[in-house]
Amino acid sequence: MTTRIINAPHPDVLQMLQRRMPPHGRAWVQANRVDSVGLMQIPVADLFYFSDLALKAAGVFTVELYGTCPQHVTSLAVMGETSSVRMAMDAIAAAQQTGF
User: Fold this and answer.
1) Strand-by-strand arrangement of the 36-43 sheet
2) Where is this protein localized, as stated in its record (predicted)?
3) What is the pLDDT of residue 67?
């Protein structure tokens, strides 16, 4: 799993991300402030598991990003306030360490 956190993403980066999102994701980004973006490239099963975990761990928004091979590996974006994104990403890292 590859992970990254972008703090204070540049507006151009948010536009790049929005091009890879479904319509509801673009609408959320346009309507809400995005202080940080957590990104991870993961298998499909992990996408759903980690998205659910992130949503339960912190007040974040999660969305699948298009553009990778959806049968095997996909990308997940976790967005919101910096502390919430960090909390969600830490919860995902802890779950991965324990093997679920």
Assistant:
1) 2-7, 36-43, 73-80, 61-65
2) Bacterial microcompartment
3) 79
Q: Whole-angstrom Cα distance, residue 78 to residue 51?
A: 8
Helices (H), ranges, 1-100: 11-19, 23-31, 44-57, 82-98
pLDDT tens track for 1-59: 889 999 999 999 999 999 999 999 999 999 999 999 999 999 888 999 999 999 999 99
Query: Which of 4, 88, 80 minimizes the C-alpha distance to 49?
Result: 88
CA neighbor of 82 nearest in space, from 23, 5, 3, 14: 5
Look up residue 25 and give its two tokens: 């994701």
> Which domains are seen in the chain, by residue range?
2-98 (3.30.70.1710)
